[in-house]
Amino acid sequence: MTIAASDPAVSAAVTGQGVGPLLRAWRERRRLSQLELALRADSSARHISFVETGRSRPSEEMVLRLAERLDVPVRERNALLLAAGYAPRFRQTPLQDPALDALRAGMERLIRCYEPYPALVVDAGYTVVAANRGIAMLLEGVPESLTAPAPNAMRLTLHPEGLAPRIRNLREWRGHLLAQMEREIALHRSDRLRVLYEEVAAYPVPEEPPGAEPAEPVPYFALPLRIEHAGRTLSFVSSISTFNTPMDVTVAELAIETFLPADPATAKYLHTMAG
Question: Considering the entire predicted model, what is its pTM?
Answer without folding.
Answer: 0.84
